[in-house]
Each structure stands twice: as structure tokens, then as C-alpha cells.
Specification:
By secondary structure, the protein is α/β, with parallel strands linked by helices. The protein has 9 helices and 8 strands. Strands 4-5-8-3-6 form a 5-stranded mixed β-sheet. The N terminus is likely disordered.
Length: 306
């Protein structure tokens, strides 16, 4: 039932949008936080808000979207977690706790008064030592000259000229044979055949079956899906993928690919404006993964307009 304007009283733009059923946000619309809590069952609308919801197309549309999003996230959270991943996560949590305890002990020792005084005295000694050799004794000869670095010219065929690492650098704590580049951009992703060296980002595990939900701008639906299909064809085995319709989204695609191509695919989707809202790996911001990158995976991608 449409409300009629009161004679002699000019309706506001928000009231006019609600009265005519136009899907446009107005100042009188229900707050986004209240709508979200209402969709989660944690908030009760007031009589005024209920009346507003009945006649406001914008608020009803936002509420419908929030309910669909809750349904999608609920399905993602009920995915069965592989036992191997549970064991791996438990071990990583225990390792993190052990490292945190070690850090706290080192922190107490580092900031103890005695150590602070010792470091300050060492810094003063180094300062005066540097002043003596750099200012008071700047001559080429004598003891000072022994500290000057002689220029080194690369011999023909040497490691410095050819760019090949010497045997001295071959024994570092990073074995390049375990690293496989999955991208050539400024923030490449890598696959490790073993645990990451100290200081490296913790690797993530990509499962044999992956299910992800992506959001995109409804105003750019045609162009966005067209770009996404090109990326799917490039990543899919033999360039083929299957399109399905589900209760969650009309545009759902299933393809078989490698873990490396799956990582490149999700990073490319994020780069052109799609937003990932589910938790399955690979995530666009993750850079290190377990495996060689050539393992097969079945990935299901659902695209939902916002």
C-alpha cells in the first residue's frame, strides 16, 4: 500500500524514493549495521523500521543480499577439513606458541638494564674508534691503509662476470631447487617441496577440491563475466570448463587445473575487481604454497553480483 503525501507538506527525497518503490538509498534507510544484525538474527526491527522495510526497495534488496551471503559463508564453514591439514595446523600453532615464548625470554634479556648499558658503552667505543681512523689518521700509508678495500676487477669467465653463483653461496639455507616460480610480477608466489626456511612466510595447502565464492559489481556484470571466462579458459585443462546453475549463484564454473594455474587464476580475478569472500586456498594475497605446483585440483568458482 503506497502512502499518499500530506497536502501542503513537501516530501523529502528519501521519503519519495521509499514511497515510489525506487531502489535508491535515502537518509531514512535502515542503518547497514542494523540490517546486517537483523539478517544474522541478532537484532529486532522497530515498528518504524518494519514499516520502512515494507515500502523501501533498496533496504529489501540489501537484506536479500546479506541473507544470500550468510548462506554462502555457512556452506563454506561446513566444508570437511582434511586430516592432514588439521595435523599441519596443530603443529604450526604449537610451533608458534614455542617461538612466542622464546621471543618473550629474549626480549626480557635484551631490555635488561645491564645489557642496555653494555650496548651503549660499545656504541661509544665504536664511535671514537671510527673518528680516530677516519679523521685523525686519513693518510694512505700505515695502519689505516690496511682497512681500505682494494678494487676488484672480474676476470674473464669468473663468477662475477658470468653471473653464476660460486660454491661459497651454494650452501645457503635456501635451496633453489625447492622453489618454483608461479608468477613473474613484483610479488611472485612460490611452491615449496619442504617446510619454509626460517623467516619465510608459512606455506598454505591447496586441496584436491576447491570451492570459492566471488563477488563482482552488478553494474559491470557483462564485462566482468566475459573477462572471468577468458581467465578460466586460460587456466583450465585443455581450455575447457563446465558452467552450472546452483541455488547460490547462476554463474558457477567447474574446471580441472594445476595448483600453479589456480594461484595465477585467483590473483588475476582479484586484479580485475572480483572480491573473494570464502576461505578455501589459494587466496590472492598468499605467496607460498606446499607442493610442486603441478598437482591437479578441481576448482569450483561461483560468481555473485553485488
Amino acid at each position: 500500500m503506497k502512502s499518499e503525501p500530506i497536502e501542503g507538506v513537501k516530501a523529502s527525497s528519501g521519503e519519495e524514493a521509499c514511497r515510489t518503490g525506487e531502489a535508491k538509498k535515502s537518509a531514512s534507510c535502515i542503518a547497514a549495521e542494523s540490517l546486517s544484525a537483523y539478517a544474522d538474527g541478532e537484532y529486532v526491527l522497530s515498528p518504524e523500521e518494519e514499516a520502512h522495510l515494507e515500502k523501501c526497495a533498496f533496504c529489501r534488496k540489501e537484506l536479500e543480499f546479506l541473507r544470500k551471503l550468510n548462506e554462502a559463508l555457512g556452506k563454506a564453514l561446513h566444508e570437511e577439513c582434511p586430516p592432514a591439514l588439521i595435523d599441519l595446523m596443530s603443529e604450526k600453532v604449537r610451533e608458534r606458541i614455542r617461538n612466542e615464548k622464546k621471543f618473550q625470554r629474549k626480549k626480557k634479556l635484551f631490555f635488561s638494564p645491564a645489557r642496555i648499558l653494555l650496548r651503549a658503552a660499545a656504541a661509544v667505543a665504536v664511535f671514537f674508534f671510527a673518528v680516530y681512523f677516519l679523521v685523525d689518521n686519513p693518510n694512505e700509508g700505515g695502519f689505516f691503509s690496511s682497512f681500505r678495500r682494494k678494487p676488484v676487477s672480474a676476470e674473464k669467465g669468473s663468477a662475477a662476470q658470468t653471473g653464476v653463483a660460486s660454491q661459497e653461496t651454494a650452501g645457503t639455507n635456501v635451496d633453489i631447487r625447492n622453489l618454483v616460480a608461479a608468477s613473474s610480477d613484483s610479488s611472485p608466489v612460490r611452491f615449496l617441496s619442504a617446510n619454509a626456511p626460517k623467516g619465510e612466510e608459512k606455506p598454505a595447502l591447496i586441496g584436491e577440491k576447491v570451492s570459492q565464492l566471488w563477488l563482482y559489481d552488478k553494474a559491470k556484470a557483462g564485462k566482468a563475466l566475459s573477462e572471468a571466462k577468458k581467465l578460466l579458459a586460460a587456466a583450465a585443462e585443455n581450455g575447457r570448463y563446465r558452467q552450472e546453475k546452483t541455488q547460490l549463484a547462476d554463474d558457477t564454473f567447474v574446471l580441472v587445473t594445476t595448483r600453479k594455474k589456480a594461484v595465477i587464476l585467483v590473483r588475476a580475478l582479484a586484479a580485475i575487481g572480483f572480491k573473494l569472500v570464502s576461505h578455501d586456498q589459494p587466496q590472492p594475497e598468499q605467496k607460498v604454497f606446499f607442493g610442486s605446483g603441478e598437482e591437479k585440483t578441481v576448482i569450483t568458482l561461483s560468481f555473485l553480483p553485488k
